[in-house]
Design goal:
This protein is mainly α. Among the domains are: 164 residues, Cytochrome Bc1 Complex, Chain D, domain 2 (Orthogonal Bundle); 25 residues. It is built from 10 helices and 4 strands, in the order H-H-H-H-E-E-H-H-H-H-E-E-H-H. The strands form 2 sheets. A two-stranded antiparallel ribbon has the order 1-2. GO terms for molecular function: electron transfer activity; heme binding; metal ion binding.
């Protein structure tokens, strides 16, 4: 009798759960979420190819140097690289003298104050220093950037899905709002001081287009023409390196381990055949 009662109780709860799931599924199907401007007009990153794509990819040091030049002349005014030290630039092909010269162009403010002027004193960085922040604090950063704090770019390509393609798409994606967007979502007009970019999550971005014209950065004679597209690719590659400076080592180690496992598997199989060759299965 007790078992029968327990069976009825279990059957009741099973039926209740089944009805709940079915009702929930019907409600979900019958009431889809209301469309939003962000959902309808946000675009996935563009397809772009780099030398470091794939398991055998590697960094193009000339491209990384061009990307560093774009960062230095365009991005560094607002964005920091707090996890990158000047001496890390040796991986890009710079020698010790060049690294010291690059570091010297980034004076570091010290906690001391010049008694004659009342301003913070500075010192020349050394290769072991990290890239200094462009602003003293977040308040100063927001005041200079339309109340938005520019993010640090050291790990940006790892912090975003399809990071390298995302950065490239964002830099080349500034445009006017589509008429269809304003027709369907009249309240989604980009506020004054912001900029429309369909590759940004909420479509409106405080950052103005940083790359505005071809030749904004001057490359060497033996380098590609510095078009907006080329500069965006180069700085995207550089920011991939800042986020994954040991990518090439990781890929090399992965290939070596895979090769070892293949050899080990073959040896193990041959040993198995030798040891059990005389045993009937």
């Amino acid at each position: 009798m007790v078992r029968f009662f327990a069976f009825l109780v279990g059957l009741f709860f099973a039926g209740w759960l089944l009805v709940s799931f079915v009702a929930g599924g019907i409600a979900y199907v019958s009431e889809p979420p209301a469309p939003t401007a962000e959902h309808e007009f946000h675009l996935a990153p563009k397809h772009v190819s780099f030398s470091f794509d794939g398991p055998f990819g590697h960094y193009d040091k000339q491209q990384l140097q061009r990307g560093f030049q774009v960062y230095k002349e365009v991005c560094a005014a607002c964005h920091s690289l707090k996890f990158v030290a000047f001496r890390d630039l040796k991986d890009l092909g710079y020698n010790e003298a060049e690294i010291k010269a690059i570091a010297k162009s980034w004076p570091i403010k010290t906690p001391d104050v010049d008694p004659a002027t009342g301003e913070a004193t500075t010192r020349d960085p050394v290769p072991s220093d990290h890239f200094p922040k462009p602003f003293a604090n977040n308040v100063a950063a927001a005041a200079a950037n339309n109340n938005a704090i520019p993010p640090d770019l050291s790990l940006m390509t790892k912090a975003r899905h399809h990071g390298t393609a995302y950065v490239y798409s964002l830099l080349t994606g500034f445009q006017n709002q589509p008429a269809e967007l304003l027709r369907r979502f009249p309240d989604s007009k980009t506020p004054s001081g912001l900029h429309y970019n369909p590759y940004f999550a909420n479509l409106n971005l405080a950052m103005a287009p940083p790359l505005t014209s071809d030749g904004q950065v001057t490359y060497g004679d033996d380098q590609p023409k510095p078009t907006i597209d080329q500069m965006a690719q180069d700085v995207s590659a550089f920011l991939t390196w800042t986020a994954e400076p040991k990518m090439e080592n990781r890929k090399s180690a992965g290939v070596a381990v895979l090769f070892f496992l293949i050899i080990a598997t073959g040896l193990a199989f041959m040993s198995y055949r030798q040891v059990w060759s005389g045993v009937k299965h």
